[in-house]
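Model it.
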Amino acid sequence: MKVTVEMDMTPQEARGFMGLPDVEPTQKKMLDDMQARMKQAFDANDPEGMMRAWMPLGGAEAFQKFQKLMWVSAAGMVKKDGK
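Modeled.
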């Protein structure tokens, strides 16, 4: 047996119906904080600070680690091929 139920509701109504918390105030606060940090870094002409504000979980350090991983991998491939 197959049953199809169609409900017409907004995302907020759906979250309430399913018992999920309203995260909109938290999202708004986080976005406002991130915008303030980015504006502060932009006003100080600090691109690295902007990246840290935009990506608080690593930023430039994470990018540098990823770049190093790519270089090491590429160098290993060249050595394997003998070129």
